[in-house]
Amino acid sequence: MRDFQLTPGIRQLINALHKRGTDVYLVSGGFRRLICPVADILGIDRKRIYANEILFDKNKNYAGFDENELTSDSGSKDLEKMELKFKELTYFDRDYLIENQSNVGKPAVMGLLKKQGYKNLVMVGDGATDLEASPPADAFIGFGGNQIREAVRARADWYVTDFEVLRKELEKNQ
């Protein structure tokens, strides 16, 4: 795997969140194989990653991605396929998926986290699919440190271009 560079300030922000006892999840439309090394560097449990699974055939050629992953779609999804993927979920969570079948993609992940007892969910992201997650997330912080998207900036509850701003705000509110 090639070396990659993390966005400045992200390590410090994640460390500050962990020190507060805040659970951190990575919710991405990207591929789990690429996200896991980042989670490892940041000290985020791999069980707290919601991302797409890339598929390969028996000859190890690319064969697509698992369309049953919640993050594989930001539009409607076939509920039966979704149910198959989430067999390991509690019946409570599966009932939530049935009741909210139009709630897919990142919003569905936020909804599941809410049903698991999380309060005050905040989504931080740079794209439209991140913005879609609020609600059910209680707030959305737009991030423009890598790329500024005006549509995201315009609709975000709060918009920052530097993770240090968020970390300092956490310090003030301890």
- Quickly give the CATH architecture of the domain at 8-19 and 118-174: 3-Layer(aba) Sandwich
Say what the CATH topology of the domain at 8-19 and 118-174 is. Rossmann fold
Largest sheet: 3 strands, parallel
Which quaternary structure do these chains form? single chain
- Approximate helicity band: 25-40%
| Secondary structure category | alpha/beta
Radius of gyration: 17 Å
- Provide the spatial order of strands within the biggest beta sheet: 5-6-7
Shape: globular
Low-confidence stretches: 75-83
Superfamily at the CATH H level of the domain at 8-19 and 118-174? HAD superfamily/HAD-like
Helix and strand succession? HEHEEEHHHEHEHEH
Number of strands: 7
What is the end-to-end distance? 38 Å
User: Quick check: average pLDDT?
Assistant: 78
CATH class of the domain at 8-19 and 118-174, named Alpha Beta
Content of β-strand: 15-25%
- What is the number of helices? 8
Overview of the structural elements:
One of its GO terms (biological process) is L-serine biosynthetic process. This is Phosphoserine phosphatase. InterPro entries: HAD-like_SerB, HAD-like_sf, HAD_sf. Keywords: Amino-acid biosynthesis, Hydrolase, Magnesium, Metal-binding, Serine biosynthesis. The chain has a domain at 8-19 and 118-174: HAD superfamily/HAD-like (Rossmann fold, 3-Layer(aba) Sandwich), CATH 3.40.50. The model is unreliable at 75-83 (pLDDT under 50). The radius of gyration is 17 Å and the shape is globular. It has helices at residues 10-19, 32-42, 79-85, 91-99, 105-115, 128-131, 150-155, 163-172, and strands spanning 26-31, 49-52, 54-56, 62-65, 122-125, 139-143, 158-160. The chain has 174 residues and is α/β, with parallel strands linked by helices. The protein is built from 8 helices and 7 strands; from the N terminus they run H-E-H-E-E-E-H-H-H-E-H-E-H-E-H.
